[in-house]
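Exercise 7. Given the components listed, write out the predicted structure of the assembled complex. Treat all entries as one system.
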Amino acid sequence: MINDKNSQKIVDIIQNWARQHSIWVLAYGTGCGAIELPPTMTSRYDAERLGVRGAATPRQADVLLITGYLTTKTLKRVIRVYEQMQDPKYVVGFGSCTINGGMYYDSYNTIKVLDKYLPVDVYINGCMPRPEAVLSGFAKLQERIAEGRAEGAKKYKENLEWYRANQKKIIPNWVMPDYNW
Amino acid sequence: MKELKEQLINRIKAHFPDITVENNFNYNRFDVSINKESIHSILFYLKDVMGFKHLSDTNCVDWLEEGEFEIVFIVWSPAEKIKIFVRTRIDRNNPVLETLDMIWPQLHTYEREFREMFGIQFTGLEAPDEFILEDWQGPPPYRRDFDTAAFAAETFFERPGREDAEDVREAITKLTGEEIPEFAKKYSR
Amino acid sequence: MREKETTLYIGPQHPGITGNMMVRLKVTGDTIVKATTEVGYLHRAFEKLQEQRNWLQCFTLMCRFCVPEPDPAEESYARAVELLEGREVPERAKYIRVLVLELARLGAYMLWYGGQNGSLGLYTVGQWSVGDRNYILDLFEELTGGRVYHMYIWPGGVRRDLPKGFEEKVLRTMDYLENRLKDYDDLMFDNTIFQKRTQGIGIVSKEKAIEWGVVGPVLRGCGIKSDIRIDDPYEVYDRLDFEVPTQEGGDIWARALVRRQEVRQSIRIIRQVIEQMPSGEYYNRIPNPQKWALPKGDAYARTESVRGEVGMYIASDGGTKPRRTHFRGAAYVHGVTLLEKVLVGANISDVSPIMNSLGVCPPEIER
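Answer.
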């Protein structure tokens, strides 16, 4: 529809401005980090003033929060949830376990590096990250969205085969539908 | 409490003469060891006759060097306020036990976990094979001879650590031009 | 006409579930015919990891068993190690431990207020109580350095002494919370919606409760007086004056009333602890942890948490690392066998309130 390069740029800026102020987080507590989300959402820290609020289903959500360690059994569900989400979508790695395995570096059932399996836009470190750190992480995500640099979903689509190969390496029984975005 | 414990031990011994009792604890506990054939009857006796109604915990310990699994049932009597550790040992190479979930329904869950994690077979246990793990292809993971660190290193990606050994605080200072406060300097490398 | 049976999956991604787990329901119409719990989404293999670490390193893993209330697991582990080794704990450390345990209990009940009401669609109580919980977490932060994970109660005592002026801060917070409880009552227990959605729902039978392994507030909600703090007293609970509330009925309403009373009892205990707090050492130093070997044998220590009895079993072969550790969570029974029994006959919309009220905490089940 818009072929003109400059008009596209303006549309992008408006889109990104709108997107950065409505970050709906999928209500899926994948790990122990989910315990710091109620304080973040309730009266003292009140993340809703930044446009961050919960969404019940993947179809309505913009952000997938990976709250801590991911077991291989959960990873399968998380991939499925991520693929059900619609664009724009972002992944936030929450806690040390998503970065390098954290305390469970030698466990046989948890993955250590999240960005080999899903495209991560922002990492929030700490065990647990404090609500201030969570808010700061969301602010960082907003910054990146506004600059048009939060392109995890695009990266995932372009390198789908590489991600799939990594995912299938630890999920032997792959029975999942292919989602057509 | 000592007399009460003696009294209880004598009552159990009258019915099960082949048990081994260990009673040198200075708190409300004593241990009873029994062979695996009598484990049903002693648990039934403790629960229904002697009032040890509450199953506090069940455990399996892998004694790899001795080639045995030790299963420990911890039962608690709300009336007498005494806990008994009931122990039995089974062969590690042929770990078979009859199911006990008719005594306490929660043993059903414990048995499913032991079957998955230690590879102990419970005859008569009706439940799906998978409980906690999914599509697990290795050996039962809680056995002592399974090396979790080696498995993790082989299966999962690892993020390489930094090699420069740089102090994080100094790195941040360099990036942002922030001053390190005086009290924090002694923690720098 | 006979209605068709349908399978319905609740979880793992579901806003009403109390953690990362799944309940598979067979329903006809709106009524649940059969429920099956599926767990394992949070299995980190703690018991395997603890075999790789020495006795002191294990202690940092303990608080991660259950996140809403991490201290009972630490307490159980510390006490099991002390039982096995015969290590004495200073008097002051015992009082500090009770203070920390009761503060943790209050914090977990504040979260429960939010969860139980949130599952019924009453979000205001959650906004208030989870906000108020921050005052307790502030105290923890000052005492231990962490909001959620404290790693504070360790074998031999506690990790550091009370900061200056901490007692007054605790008392001030207790006064504030006690005033707030009236507001919660107005919004929650006087609310017709709350009464109608909880009375007569999720009934646990009194006759079978002990045999089924029901513990804690759920058992007290059936009218059975049972509390580890009284039955098998640990630390200094036998010197403190408090009541164990019970309630007849065994439904969600009865359990909520029990918990309502326990919040007040916790505040009462904290005030007594601060009053009786002795001075002196807070830590009986352990030897070099690299060479610290425990005698051969095993021990089991249990603690009363908000969900009921939690216990830690440790077995040592005489080495510097555990032979086996096992954590017994209350949810291990509540979340699998009991939940499957209680859900039968209930409505689909009652699944989430029942799970909240039974205290199902999945990381305790699969560890």
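Discussion: Chain A has one domain: 5-170. Chain A touches chain B through 22 residues (CB under 8 Å).
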